Amino acid sequence: MKYKLLLSIALSVLFLGCEKPANSSKNFKVQSSLMTESEISSFDDALAKLDTVMSEKAPLLHGKFAPGATDEDIAQLREALGGHEITSLEAWFRWHNGPKERFLGLVPLGEVVSIKQAIEYRESLSMAGASLRGSSVMIMEDGAGDGYFLDITSDPPRVFYEMMEDPYPTYYGSLPEFVDFIIKGFSSEVFSEDAKGWFVEDEDRFEAFEKNYLDKHNKH
Predict the structure, then answer these.
(1) 103, 118, 154, 199: which sits with the fewest CB atoms below 10 Å from its CB?
(2) Cα–Cα nearest to 58, from 157, 168, 149, 194
(3) 125 CB contacts (<8 Å, ≥6 apart)?
């Protein structure tokens, strides 16, 4: 009897030790952010323009996009965010829900991700040392665990790039402003593709191009 009691206690301790910590990603701060109909229409127009520009300037890269997110996909996103609606983020994923395959870059160190990938990344975070990313949703990855995120606690939500090694993230403004940055990058051919459809940037021009954008938006 004593042996069975000790075994029961041991198994209980083991079970509790394997339970998911209470500080899961669902405990990170989230707040809804709604756009007006006019703002949504303007953003949709910008995303359509990006489609047009990329189909002309980087057709192989553009062909790697997956179709837009479905209502079911959006419902899963909202559930992962505790029922909150982030209009700009949903419009972004309704445009294209990530790539058909990996390695679809839109900016340096920025390969688009799907809703599924974004949710999986968010759920992998712990509360410790991830407060900024925990209050955000990944929209692009750099292949090394870092990338571009949308801060969903700011008003309006703002895009930033962060490397774990760098304590100072770079902010690019709202998601519509970030899309405008990408459009101008491809329009000016600072961003383009190589013969195999891989994203490339003009290294001689990119630094000045990015600095001009960041200075104008005063988000650095």
Answers:
(1) 103
(2) 194
(3) 25, 28, 133, 134
Q: Which amino acid is at 78?
A: R
* Beta partners for residue 141, in sequence order: 111, 147
At 174-214, the pLDDT tens digits run 999 999 999 999 999 999 999 999 999 999 999 999 999 99
Phi, psi for 161 (deg, rounded to 5): -110, 135
Contact 84, 78 (CB under 8 A): yes
Can you tell me the distance from the alpha carbon of 176 to that of 178, in angstroms, rounded to the nearest whole number? 5
Closest CA to 174 of 43, 20, 71: 43
Torsion of Cα atoms, 202 then 205 then 207 then 212, to 10°? -130
Beta-carbon contacts of 92 under 8 Å, excluding residues fewer than 6 positions away, are 47, 139, 175, 179
Alpha-carbon span 162 to 211, nearest angstrom: 17
User: Which H or E element spans position 201?
Assistant: strand 199-201
What is the token pair recorded at 3?
């042996």
Cα–Cα distance measured from residue 110 to residue 142, given in angstroms and rounded to the nearest whole number = 5
Q: Which domains does the chain have, with CATH numbers?
A: 25-217 (3.40.1580.10)
> Which tokens sit at 186?
């491809």
Dig out the tokens for 53 from the structure.
């520009």
Under 8 Å between Cβ of 116 and 12 = no
User: Each residue of 96-145: pLDDT tens digit?
Assistant: 999 998 889 999 999 999 999 999 998 888 544 556 788 899 999 998 88
